[in-house]
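Final report, Chapter 2: Outcomes

The project's central promise was a pipeline that accepts a single protein chain and returns its three-dimensional structure in a standardized token representation, suitable for archiving and comparison. That pipeline is now operational. To close this chapter, we reproduce one record exactly as it appears in the project archive, with the input sequence first and the structure output second.
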Amino acid sequence: MLQAAATVTLESRRRPGATHSERQQTAQGKEPPKLTAKNTKLLFALRPFSLIVAIATCSLGILLAWSAGPVSVGVSAAVLLAGLLLQAGVNLINDHADIERLSIVGAERRAIERNARIGVAAIALACAIGVWLVTLRGWPLLLLGAVGVLGLWGYASEPINLKSRGLGLPAVFLLTGVLMVCGAYYTVRGAMSVDVIAWSVPFSAFAALLLLANELRDFELDRRDGHATLSARLGHARAAQLYALVAASVALSTVALALAFGRPLVVLAVLPLGLLPLNLLGRPAQERTQLARQTGRCYAAFTAVFLVSLGVSLP
């Protein structure tokens, strides 16, 4: 439930397989090319690269739980598996709403419907794992799951619709970062620690950066379609400045945690931040096509270095 909320908040509003040039054609009132069989293949719809969000947040929570004392390997594996299944499931059903909106027919429609069925099965399996975990940890875990579901519903649904109110970034910070890491920790450990909230901050800020990268990439299209995202409200120049500030907060919070908890090796996680595509922020729309993708790659590198350096420095 928690990971489903995280996934939806980080998914862009693109139709499946649309390139940036096609989205620009749409923004200019031109009819973009129809979906192809390649776009609707299971692996494409699964969006494997996006699974790094589930791996990162669940792994951090699990790693911190293990550092506090003996825990169950089975429960740890179940937490990670449930997170991956939920994110994969939401990815697979994400394109189903486009069937009617884009008048998709034939083989492409059947492929999307097949993907959606597999996605529902994945979500059902993840929920079954979740029910078992709730029997182990009780109502606090159920409460965390309920918060995740409410966040999923309120992010893009009326009457709350946090995204349209320009509150997408703080929602993602909490849902994809703090809530996910703390949920994984509590499920594995059976208790909560304030330190875990502190350790979740860099990942929470990076999750917000991923969403901001999507908003900046699609800035012109969002403005044209009336999507009142935070970037659309601020304007491109200020949103680009915010991107740089959030990136700086990831670096500063990482260094602060390394010093505060006596884990100097964690400072190494700052190095991959040099891969952030800051040079693309002020470019025209056609040149910002790789902004979100490159930010995602940086997130993956940051996650790997952070978790490894933290893991080897823990007692």
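Archive annotation: The chain is about 70% helix and 0% strand.
This record, like all others produced under the grant, will remain available to the consortium after the project formally closes.
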